[in-house]
């Protein structure tokens, strides 16, 4: 039976020859992930189930990345609870302090998630690892607690929407713009319960950091997972980080798709999502006069070294507009260190940026860079719901890092061409 | 299972940040979370919701983050079930996993109004408006999800699977 890459990976992990959309299956999990917000509840669930040990101490990653360095007593209590659990169960991949970066940045960086695996995380942006040709999806804490106890999860096999992206994008256009354009096209419910499988000639040339950005935002269209078939770019990325464990699967030529969408990347301008939905997307040239109080560059969507390089190339020799707060957060300690070595951090400091420690930062409005009533921010993040970055009467706009950097200098939404 | 309660009517794409804003996620006790449920969307909700009340919403209810704090906050506030045109998938899993039932009914989602009293038969999937006895149908809850609800959530369901030797 012809299958998509998602169906093949799920079938293998359910010990079945084949699966079809709609099948309910029990799936073995290769890596289970939780963070400082979701792990405490997952741990309580694990304790309630009553198993003495986690199913595999090397296959659980606990990453304290949301409200760290601990922002208040309650957050410190939560991380303490997770830390004590990690110690008790000898969890190999427990990260906080100087080891911590954003979960979805450090797991691929360390080679902890690989092509062909099933990765389940108690964080909605766990779908990021589809960039590597893995099946990965977000769940809640109870599911994660059950996985820590049993190593398994029940899943419904999703139907797949194939997205073919063709053409050579303009210089300022990248993965972020393509995924925002797609979400604008199909809506926040457009891929609900489904797989978004990305292909086409644009994708074959797309560097890994942009694939990670695209897979990361599959959830914003309601998708269960986003996935790229692995290729030479995938192999090069994986070979640098891991010696064994990768299984490279491709969709069959006659695999069945619920829908096929084609995007002409050559015709795209940089995209900006307006409040209060990632689907409320406009072309950069049609944004009008949107003045800004804050610009944030970072997050699991755009916190890579390449993203920082792109931002620095725009900010070199310039300064953030007077009265505008520019916050930049490298996605991991390794990215931070490399950004220092390459002189990126100095460029950013010269541009009057605040550099934050590797973490989720202001993205979810709980810590570092919260907006007041009536304030507007442009962010390279993934969500701009009401109150996402602070006061319910604040506004969040989403863009790629180049547009964010240029906008920080302009004091309003605009591109580097306007500098 | 039968439920009866007054309706809180909400719109489309009610995301998890609206259900429980991230600034309240530094705790994980359900009763604490309930105090801030819909804090920005319906500030009066937490103080005036009554046990048994029903949320009726539009499409894609619970979209956004995977935070289980969202269904936990709603359940701990006393809400007996949620009826919507459709649900976001992580929220759907989370709600059933913690024993909060959901029903999909485009018709009820459209017709029912804030303050209406309804009686719901979960097994039959029927929703009756008390004032005029109008009945709305809903998509049947998949057998597997019904089993989880019957067991009281995914945790008791899993404990039972382990006891029977079905889970490794």
The average pLDDT score of chain A comes to 98
Shape of chain B: globular
Q: What proportion of the residues of chain A is helical, as a percent range? A: 25-40%
DSSP summary: helix tally of chain B: 8
Short description:
With 419 residues, chain A is an alpha/beta fold.
Molecular structure report:
By secondary structure, chain A is of the alpha/beta class. Chain A has helices at residues 5-13, 39-49, 73-88, 103-109, 141-150, 175-186, 201-204, 208-216, 232-239, 299-302, 305-315, 333-341, 344-350, 401-410, and strands spanning 24-28, 31-35, 60-63, 93-95, 118-122, 135-138, 152-156, 160-166, 195-199, 225-228, 259-264, 271-273, 281-283, 294-297, 325-328, 354-355, 376-379, 395-398. Chain A is globular and about 60 Å long. Chain A starts with a helix and ends in a 9-residue tail after the last helix. The mean pLDDT of chain A is 98. By secondary structure, chain B is of the alpha/beta class. Chain B has one domain (2-163): Aconitase, domain 4 (Alpha-Beta Barrel), CATH 3.20.19. Chain B is built from eight helices and seven strands; from the N terminus they run E-H-H-H-E-H-E-H-E-H-E-E-E-H-H. At the A-B interface, helix 2, helix 3 and helix 5 of A face helix 4, helix 5 and helix 8 of B.
């Amino acid at each position: 039976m012809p299958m998509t890459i998602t169906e093949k990976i799920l079938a293998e992990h359910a010990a079945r020859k084949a699966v079809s959309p709609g099948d309910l299956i029990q799936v073995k999990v290769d890596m289970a992930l939780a963070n400082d917000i979701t792990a405490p509840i997952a741990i309580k669930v694990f304790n309630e189930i009553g198993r003495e040990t986690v199913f595999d101490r090397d296959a659980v990653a606990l990453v304290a990345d949301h409200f760290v360095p601990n922002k208040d007593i309650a957050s410190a209590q939560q991380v303490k609870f997770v830390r004590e659990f990690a110690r008790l169960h000898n969890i190999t991949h427990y990260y906080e302090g100087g080891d911590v970066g954003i979960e979805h940045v450090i797991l691929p960086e360390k080679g902890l998630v690989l092509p062909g695996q099933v990765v389940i995380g108690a964080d909605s942006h766990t779908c990021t690892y589809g960039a590597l040709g893995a099946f990965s999806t977000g769940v809640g804490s109870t599911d994660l607690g059950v996985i820590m106890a049993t190593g398994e999860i029940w899943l419904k096999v999703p139907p797949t929407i194939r997205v073919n992206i063709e053409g050579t994008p303009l210089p300022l256009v990248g993965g972020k713009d393509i995924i925002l354009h797609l979400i604008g096209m199909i809506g926040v419910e457009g891929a609900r319960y489904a797989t978004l499988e990305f292909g086409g000639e644009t994708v074959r040339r797309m560097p890994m950091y942009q694939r990670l950005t695209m897979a990361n935002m599959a959830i914003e269209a309601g998708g269960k997972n986003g996935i790229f078939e692995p290729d030479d770019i995938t192999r090069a990325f994986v070979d640098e980080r891991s010696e064994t464990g990768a299984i490279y699967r491709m969709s069959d030529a006659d695999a069945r798709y619920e829908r096929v969408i084609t995007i002409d990347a050559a015709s795209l301008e940089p995209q900006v999502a307006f409040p209060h939905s990632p689907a409320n997307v406009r072309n950069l040239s049609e944004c009008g006069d949107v003045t800004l109080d804050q610009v944030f560059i970072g997050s699991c969507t755009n916190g890579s070294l390449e993203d920082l390089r792109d931002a620095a190339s725009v900010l070199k020799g310039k300064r953030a507009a007077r009265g505008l707060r520019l916050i930049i957060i490298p996605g991991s300690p390794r990215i931070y260190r490399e950004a220092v070595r390459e002189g990126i951090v100095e460029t950013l400091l010269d541009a009057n940026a605040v550099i934050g420690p590797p973490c989720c930062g202001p993205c979810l409005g709980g810590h570092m860079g919260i907006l007041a009533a009536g304030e507007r921010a442009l962010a390279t993040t993934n969500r701009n719901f009401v109150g996402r970055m602070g006061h319910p009467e604040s506004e969040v706009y989403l863009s790629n890092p180049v547009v964010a950097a240029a906008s920080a200098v302009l004091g309003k939404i605009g591109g580097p061409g306007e500098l | 299972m039968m439920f009866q309660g007054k309706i809180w009517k909400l719109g489309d794409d009610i995301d998890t940040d609206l259900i429980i804003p991230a600034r309240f996620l530094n705790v994980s006790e359900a009763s604490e979370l309930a105090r801030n449920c819909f804090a920005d969307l319906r500030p009066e909700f937490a103080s005036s919701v009554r046990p048994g009340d029903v949320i009726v919403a539009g499409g894609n209810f619970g979209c956004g983050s995977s935070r289980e704090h969202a269904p936990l906050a709603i359940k701990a506030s006393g809400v007996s079930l949620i009826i919507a045109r459709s649900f976001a998938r992580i929220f759907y899993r989370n709600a059933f996993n913690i024993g909060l039932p959901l029903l999909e009914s485009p018709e009820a989602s459209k017709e029912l109004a804030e303050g209406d009293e309804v009686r719901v038969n979960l097994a039959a999937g029927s929703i009756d408006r008390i004032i005029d006895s109008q009945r709305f149908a809903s998509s049947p809850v998949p057998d597997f999800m019904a089993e989880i609800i019957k067991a009281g959530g995914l945790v008791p369901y899993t404990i039972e699977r382990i006891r029977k030797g079905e889970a490794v």
